[in-house]
Amino acid sequence: MSAATRTTTGTRGIARAAVQAELAHVAFDLFRRQGFDKVTVDDLAAAAGVSRSTFLRYFRSKEEAVLGAFDAQGEKLAAALRARPAAENDWTALRRALDTALEPYRQDPEHSLALLSLVASTSALCARRLEKQDSWRTLLAQALADRTGDTRPATLAESVRAAAALDCLNIALEHWSTDGATTDLDALVDQAFTVLTAPADTTRQPHDERPRPA
């Protein structure tokens, strides 16, 4: 491929990303004002000043207009995980890799809160988000396997660790959203990982005791 061809291809990619971002912005604003279920693809196209077919060239569905940015997140997380120092244990490497996922929330907490609220209140978006994160789990588990230097599929243990790390992220985001972003998100994720990796406390406290059957 010539330099001119690469430049043209790159320019087209940048232009497409800019249009896609603008369409997503229009869609998100309309969803917030009117409700996700009340807005149709035709409504979105009209609000953006494009045809229905044009809108669908950028987003296959209403859900993708909200969650399309999540598609690349899994690959970014996996790449960040593979880049962690080999001496780090899996939990530390996973925690640090999640910094990639936290960056958008740090940069624009107001938009992030609105996005989390919209997703939480819309069953279709909740389901689609979970589907996307399931693909993240597979990518993260394989990245953990790759860190060992062996060419092999991820083990059950690595899959469990990847799933648990994503649960830590989601629970921290839930608390952060409930608190209106007043709590430090990084600290919440750190706390979640601390609870996850701390030795289990098997001692039964008095308030945990249950009446014994007669």
Task: Name some characteristics of this structure.
single chain, 214 residues, mainly alpha, 71% helix, globular, disordered N terminus, disordered C terminus
Topology:
Blueprint (H helix, E strand, L loop, with lengths): L2 H32 L6 H8 L3 H7 L3 H6 L5 H10 L7 H8 L1 H9 L1 H12 L2 H24 L9 H23 L6 H13 L17
Characterization of this structure:
The protein has 214 residues and is mostly helical. 71% of the residues lie in helices and 0% in strands. The protein has eleven helices and no strands. Helix 5 crosses helix 6. The protein is globular and about 55 Å long.
Evaluate the radius of gyration. 21 Å
Taking the sheet with the most strands, its summary is: none
| Overall strand count | 0
> What string, H for helix and E for strand, traces the elements in order?
HHHHHHHHHHH
Helicity level: over 70%
Helix-strand makeup class: mainly alpha
Distance between the termini: 81 Å
Global geometry: globular
Structure in a nutshell:
This protein is mainly α. It has helices spanning 3-34, 41-48, 52-58, 62-67, 73-82, 90-97, 99-107, 109-120, 123-146, 156-178, 185-197.
